[in-house]
Amino acid sequence: MTDWSQQEQILKTRRAELVGEIRQIEDQLDDEPPKDWEDRASERQGDEVLESLGAHDAAELRQIDGALARIAEGTYGECVQCGNSISTERLAALPATPFCKTCAI
């Protein structure tokens, strides 16, 4: 059995960063809209960007949670599709990946 403690720490650190980013995005989206129409239009465009960033962060957070669950189950490093081992190089580059190089294509 491989010791994935370093990968687990990397995932937990990134998870904490994402949770902080999502909170900041939510706080900014909750701000009172400006009264001026032109400022509101500009603010809405900014909100759309923030919403997109938040969705991206939420998706990455789900991937990380899945990887942490696989570590806890003892299946981290195994491809969820074919069951083959995921290379340590691939896991170093993409620590939350559930797929080996072949199945990711």
UniProtKB/TrEMBL annotation:
SUPFAM superfamilies, alphabetized: DnaK suppressor protein DksA, alpha-hairpin domain, Glucocorticoid receptor-like (DNA-binding domain)
Region (Disordered): 24-43
Record flagged with keyword Zinc-finger: yes
Domain DnaK suppressor protein-like N-terminal: 8-71
Zinc finger boundaries on the chain: dksA C4-type: 79-103
Metal-binding listed as a keyword: yes
Record-linked InterPro entries: DksA-like_N (IPR048487), DnaK_N (IPR037187), Znf_DskA_TraR (IPR000962)
Domain Zinc finger DksA/TraR C4-type per the UniProt entry, residue ranges: 74-104
Record keywords: Metal-binding, Zinc, Zinc-finger
Gene3D superfamilies: DksA, coiled-coil domain (1.20.120.910)
PANTHER family: GENERAL STRESS PROTEIN 16O (PTHR33823:SF4), RNA POLYMERASE-BINDING TRANSCRIPTION FACTOR DKSA-RELATED (PTHR33823)
Name of protein: TraR/DksA C4-type zinc finger protein
Organism: Thalassococcus lentus
